[in-house]
Amino acid sequence: MKITVDFEECLKDSPRFRATIEEVEGDVCELESKLDKLVKLCIGMIDAGKAYNAANKQFVNGIRELAQQSAKDEVIESSLTKFAESLQEMINYHTILFDQAQRSIKTQLQTFVKDDLRKFKEAKKQFDKVSEEKENALIKNAQAPRNKQHEVEEATNILTATRKCFRHIVLDYVLQINVLQSKRRSEILKSMLSFMYAHLTFFHQGYDLFSELQPLMKQLGGQDFSNDDTKLEYNVDADNGIAMEGYLFKRASNAFKTWNRRWFSIQNNQLVYQKKFKDNPTVVVEDLRLCTVKHCEDIERRFCFEVVSPTKSCMMQADSEKLRQAWIKAVQNSIATAFRDKGDSGEKLDRKSSTSTGSLDSGGEPKERSLKGESALQKVLAIPGNACCCDCGQPDPRWASINLGITLCIQCSGIHRSLGVHFSKVRSLTLDSWEPELLKLMCELGNRVINQIYEARREELGARKPQPGDPRHEVEAYIKAKYVDRRFVRRPSDEELRTKVVSLSKEEKRLSSSSDHLPPKAPPPTPKLRPGSHASGQSVKSADSGIQNSADGSREMLATTPSSNSLADAEAAEAPPVPATLPTASPCKEVVFFEPKEYSPGLQLYWASFSRSLPDMAEALAHGAEVNWVNTEEDKRTPLIMAVHGGSLVTCEFLLQNAVNVNQLDAQGRGPLHHATMLGHTGQVCLFLKRGANQNAADIDEKTPLSIAVEAANADIVTLLRLAKMNEEMREAEGPYNPSGDETYQDIFQDFTHMASNDPDKLNRYQQYDPQRP
């Protein structure tokens, strides 16, 4: 309750004033009691929290010891190690939270109690004393006899002096009361707000941390460790010739229809079973090519399926729905393999799992997948300046900000997380998997490049850069000044900005004219028959089949993808840029530099995206460029569309990591996916589809990316677009039971991603889209 005292009322010293003063004093006394109690409770909470952290550290050490003991089991060791790292980081977050509670609740409220309430109490003592003196003076003045003039004058003088003193003291007391009431609100709320924001940061950091951990948890949670379901998989190349085996219940064909548990196996294109190990196998199906398999839901038992041949049928029951699906898929794959083996004169299909989970490679060698652990760490730390934390200089960093392209120590990574993902996206260099395009992004930027931008004026302003071991609040203040306020960024003059933009446009022309960057020669276009020709129907059919064959060929092409390309070689072979002057018949307008009406950081980002210069793009963003900036003088094109025309996958990835809109359209109604499809940039199409690009969007000519790819006969892009559409439909149909969609889709997209980053020449097999070509 806020009680204010009127100054005029206090001078009257009326009963109302005395009653108000009494109420205020009672309220302040109760406030002091409550604040003392709250501070004691806070101290107890902090002590309990420290004890919890100490016990939690021992628990985490126990997890690490268990992981070391389980070194022979890679799954247990890697999982427990990652869990221990995450829990250790949560302990660090808890420590920060308790430190904030110490500062905001205990220290701040204790200061309020000791300073402000102490001043109030001292003012109250003086008020009580002068009130008593005034009361005595009044009594003495009243008792002075009329006939004793010197006593009357003395009493009068004492009363006058006492009243003056009382007025000064009471005014000071009332002022202290009003100041206390006002400061009480600000101090208490400021203290609690600071504490609540500390909680907000704590839970936000925890959410980000476990969001990164969630894929591993889902992967482990999807495995059934309690039974042998996960051990059942179809393997056509098993050494003993048995593609799959396990227990099933079989319904007898007698009149009683009894169910018996038997050991079934698929071998030599046959389905067989046996009762005991020594028994000779009983053949259920002689030739799987003549069979079909289907679910059975019209009988009382669960998890049943039926294998039907021309002469008989066999009803079987699995132990779970997962096992039923595995057996049905195994039989289907066996049927397909039997036909293929027969057609290839007994040649075996070179793969090691079912079509839904198997690799698309046919060479038998495993492809390079997303880099993880020491591999990604070594490549990123090899960049000059990355061996120490970008912000405090702590050696051997283990974290990175992927949208800034820098490495961080664990303390600075926690501060970066608290800034929010719109400023910094933190990822572990050892615990997380790294996509090839993201790893190349990190290798093109680095601490030295970013610090030249974000710390350009640091020495000029006399700002001290944090050192390892500095207090967290000092490091946090520096990081916020550096990335949020951008206090140390040097703003370019208009002339410097103009020079930068012009040089970027000239750099692109130089790169485009270089023979090392020209695209490969396009194959001659397929001739089309005029309408009315007797073979017109046949020509259409041939064209369609050609596209389909190319789509099938793309899968074979994936099999020859090399698995060990260095980043340097891959970067040199990155998809070539579009020539500065495109054919006049192309729907992608000629990219030519015109003198703009106004130079801005957005224009710098626009041309830097085209010239594939990530440092200049990062500089433009630091200068305040809008990542979705629109060039109204150039058909409303955006930096992402210019990155597509520049032909670089990494520049597109950099913009996507900095929250660019992947579906922003130009004046022709075309988004980045349209442009990538028209230019035949398969790697960019794959990247945009993974990032949620709308493939159903139609431009002003009512053409979608798929219709453009079909017309251009680009089988790779047609395959990607159709797979993405199919996967989207499957996700919608299966809902929460399969949020990631089909596994084949994931495998194929991963293959295209690695090829686009590590061997892009294999994707440069098609000419650009031209609706007017013959």
From TrEMBL:
<dbReference type="InterPro" id="IPR027267">
    <property type="entry name" value="AH/BAR_dom_sf"/>
</dbReference>
<keyword id="KW-0479">Metal-binding</keyword>
<feature type="compositionally biased region" description="Basic and acidic residues">
    <location>
        <begin position="495"/>
        <end position="511"/>
    </location>
</feature>
<keyword id="KW-0472">Membrane</keyword>
<dbReference type="GO" id="GO:0008270">
    <property type="term" value="F:zinc ion binding"/>
</dbReference>
<dbReference type="InterPro" id="IPR011993">
    <property type="entry name" value="PH-like_dom_sf"/>
</dbReference>
<keyword id="KW-0862">Zinc</keyword>
<dbReference type="Pfam" id="PF16746">
    <property type="entry name" value="BAR_3"/>
</dbReference>
<feature type="domain" description="PH">
    <location>
        <begin position="241"/>
        <end position="336"/>
    </location>
</feature>
<feature type="compositionally biased region" description="Polar residues">
    <location>
        <begin position="535"/>
        <end position="552"/>
    </location>
</feature>
<keyword id="KW-0343">GTPase activation</keyword>
<feature type="domain" description="Arf-GAP">
    <location>
        <begin position="374"/>
        <end position="496"/>
    </location>
</feature>
<dbReference type="GO" id="GO:0010008">
    <property type="term" value="C:endosome membrane"/>
</dbReference>
<keyword id="KW-1003">Cell membrane</keyword>
<dbReference type="Pfam" id="PF01412">
    <property type="entry name" value="ArfGap"/>
</dbReference>
<dbReference type="GO" id="GO:0005886">
    <property type="term" value="C:plasma membrane"/>
</dbReference>
<protein>
    <recommendedName>
        <fullName>Arf-GAP with coiled-coil, ANK repeat and PH domain-containing protein</fullName>
    </recommendedName>
</protein>
<dbReference type="Pfam" id="PF12796">
    <property type="entry name" value="Ank_2"/>
</dbReference>
<dbReference type="InterPro" id="IPR036770">
    <property type="entry name" value="Ankyrin_rpt-contain_sf"/>
</dbReference>
<keyword id="KW-0175">Coiled coil</keyword>
<feature type="repeat" description="ANK">
    <location>
        <begin position="668"/>
        <end position="700"/>
    </location>
</feature>
<keyword id="KW-0863">Zinc-finger</keyword>
<keyword id="KW-0967">Endosome</keyword>
<dbReference type="InterPro" id="IPR004148">
    <property type="entry name" value="BAR_dom"/>
</dbReference>
<feature type="region of interest" description="Disordered">
    <location>
        <begin position="495"/>
        <end position="581"/>
    </location>
</feature>
<dbReference type="InterPro" id="IPR001849">
    <property type="entry name" value="PH_domain"/>
</dbReference>
<feature type="compositionally biased region" description="Low complexity">
    <location>
        <begin position="566"/>
        <end position="581"/>
    </location>
</feature>
<dbReference type="InterPro" id="IPR002110">
    <property type="entry name" value="Ankyrin_rpt"/>
</dbReference>
<feature type="region of interest" description="Disordered">
    <location>
        <begin position="342"/>
        <end position="371"/>
    </location>
</feature>
<feature type="compositionally biased region" description="Basic and acidic residues">
    <location>
        <begin position="342"/>
        <end position="353"/>
    </location>
</feature>
<dbReference type="Pfam" id="PF00169">
    <property type="entry name" value="PH"/>
</dbReference>
<dbReference type="InterPro" id="IPR045258">
    <property type="entry name" value="ACAP1/2/3-like"/>
</dbReference>
<dbReference type="GO" id="GO:0005096">
    <property type="term" value="F:GTPase activator activity"/>
</dbReference>
<feature type="compositionally biased region" description="Low complexity">
    <location>
        <begin position="354"/>
        <end position="363"/>
    </location>
</feature>
<comment type="function">
    <text>GTPase-activating protein for the ADP ribosylation factor family.</text>
</comment>
<dbReference type="InterPro" id="IPR038508">
    <property type="entry name" value="ArfGAP_dom_sf"/>
</dbReference>
<dbReference type="InterPro" id="IPR001164">
    <property type="entry name" value="ArfGAP_dom"/>
</dbReference>
<keyword id="KW-0677">Repeat</keyword>
<keyword id="KW-0040">ANK repeat</keyword>
<feature type="repeat" description="ANK">
    <location>
        <begin position="635"/>
        <end position="667"/>
    </location>
</feature>
<dbReference type="InterPro" id="IPR037278">
    <property type="entry name" value="ARFGAP/RecO"/>
</dbReference>
